[in-house]
Inverse folding.
């Protein structure tokens, strides 16, 4: 059974603009999933349905096989299970100190002071931000703010973390650090769902990919299944990962017959095999 699923999810904004037009999405427990799509494809709108911030115009969101209900008590339980990290951490961080910000969610659960303190400590340790408890969040760098936003979600002990463009606005090193953090959280058993424009990161970290365009999922599968269909990827105004594009050129234009690769490691091995076979 999927831990999170949407069935024929449709959503229109109050002005009548159709944002989602029949989204069928499925996340199994423990997966790391990337949703790819151009600006305006509906990625953020889809994410806002995953923990009940938006209510579908049509269709259902199912959590552990049960449709989400939209009364306050039910939504609280949903948001304990599914945490969302917004694209801009400034939309999420508001307390005077890091410690207070991370503690906000557990406090709303009515936990004891001791349990709240433990969760704050454990969450900051998990994102390598110990020692920043007394810092004002607005004094932190972009990457540090992203880590604190993730810590605030971790403090709720979620089973699923949804991140909208987690590497947006970060330099390459900061983006790599955030993705490694998410990979480690995934290894610990948390289901991770991200949206991203950075297709080069996807084959390295994700085990499932969905292509979203104009409010519809046009393809889903493993990174290999997605990126081997270059026509569909490009029809969604996306590009192949740089490595895959290089191998594609070597194969199709230079007629070298090298197998497709999606990461540097895969490309290296495939090129070595090709050289040995000559």
């Amino acid at each position: 059974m999927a831990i999170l699923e949407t069935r024929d999810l449709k959503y229109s904004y109050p002005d009548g603009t159709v944002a989602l037009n029949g989204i069928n999405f499925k996340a199994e427990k423990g997966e790391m999933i990337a949703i790819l799509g151009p600006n305006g494809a509906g990625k953020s709108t889809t994410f806002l349905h995953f923990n009940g911030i938006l209510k579908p115009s049509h269709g259902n969101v199912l959590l552990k096989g049960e449709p989400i209900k939209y009364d306050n008590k039910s939504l609280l339980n949903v948001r304990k299970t599914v945490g969302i990290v917004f694209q801009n951490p400034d939309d999420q961080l508001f307390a005077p100190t890091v410690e207070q910000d991370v503690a906000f969610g557990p406090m709303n659960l009515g936990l004891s002071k001791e349990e709240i303190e433990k969760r704050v400590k454990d969450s900051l340790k998990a994102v390598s931000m110990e020692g920043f408890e007394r810092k004002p969040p607005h004094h932190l760098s972009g990457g540090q703010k992203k880590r604190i936003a993730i810590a605030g979600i971790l403090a709720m002990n979620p089973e699923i973390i949804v991140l909208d463009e987690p590497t947006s606005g970060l330099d390459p090193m900061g983006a790599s650090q955030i993705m490694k953090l998410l990979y480690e959280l995934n290894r610990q058993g948390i289901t991770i769902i991200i949206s991203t424009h950075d297709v080069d990161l996807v084959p390295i970290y994700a085990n499932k990919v969905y292509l979203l365009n104009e409010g519809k999922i046009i393809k889903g599968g493993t990174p290999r299944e997605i990126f081997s269909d270059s026509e569909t990827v490009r029809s969604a105004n996306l590009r192949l990962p740089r490595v895959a594009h290089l191998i594609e050129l070597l194969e199709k234009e230079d007629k070298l017959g090298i197998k497709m690769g999606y990461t540097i490691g895969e490309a290296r091995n495939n090129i070595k095999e090709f050289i040995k076979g000559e």
Notes: The beta strands are 4-12, 18-27, 32-36, 58-63, 66-67, 82-85, 160-164, 191-196, 208-213, 216-221.
